[in-house]
Structure formats: C-alpha cells, structure tokens
Amino acid sequence: LLEQALVIEEQLRRAAYLNMTEDPAHPSMALNTRFSEVECLAESHQHLSKESMSGNKPANAVLHKVLKQLEELLSDMKADVTRLPATIARIPPVAVRLQMSERNILSRLASRGPDVTAQNQSQTSQQMQV
Fold this sequence. Notes:
Blueprint: H1 2-17, H2 27-44, H3 47-53, H4 57-90, H5 94-97, H6 102-111, H7 114-129
Helix pairs in contact: 2-4, 3-4
C-alpha cells in the first residue's frame, strides 16, 4: 500500500507540474456525474419509503417517480460502463502522460526517503493554508 501511495503521489505531483487537468467531456466523468446524481437523489428521498409504507399516498406517488428516475440513471450508467473498457484502452500509459520512463519513475520513488515525503506533506499543507 505504501508503494502504491508513493506512486500515486508521484503521479499527482508530476501531473500538477505539467498543469494537467480533468477533461469534463471524458466519458468517465459522465459516469462520475451520474453516480453523484444517483447518490443525491437517493439520499434526498430516502424518507419516502417509510412514509409510503405508513400509507401516505402522495409519498407513494413521489416514491414511484423517484424510483423511475433512479432506474433511468442506473440504465444510463450501465451503458456508460459497457463503453468504459474501450475508453480506458485509449488512455495513454501513465509514463507517457507524465513524460517519464518507467525506470525514471521507479528511480525517483526509490531515491525518495521518508523525510522527503514528510517535507512534501508539510509543503502541501502550507500551500493549502495560503
């Protein structure tokens, strides 16, 4: 886990250095957006099931509409997920995106000591405070 964390930290540091940003038009971002919509819709209407079971007819009607919306969103997500492997296959490897060879990435990770990681964390927290 520590090695994975260091790799991810190096990838994030390098991505920040290269001013890389997320592409909002990327298909994986659409999946993320839909997941957020499902989560928000489910959380905001979770009380309806209790009210519906207690015999509240208007709550029951609203619950059915919400469930229909959830079903549509999940269907859209299922379609997005089926396209995801092809999308991921088109993403260039991490080494290409960071403009570093795998050997360079590994040597940078191997040369960094624990105190360097602590310094980076303290610098990051100082930058967040500014």
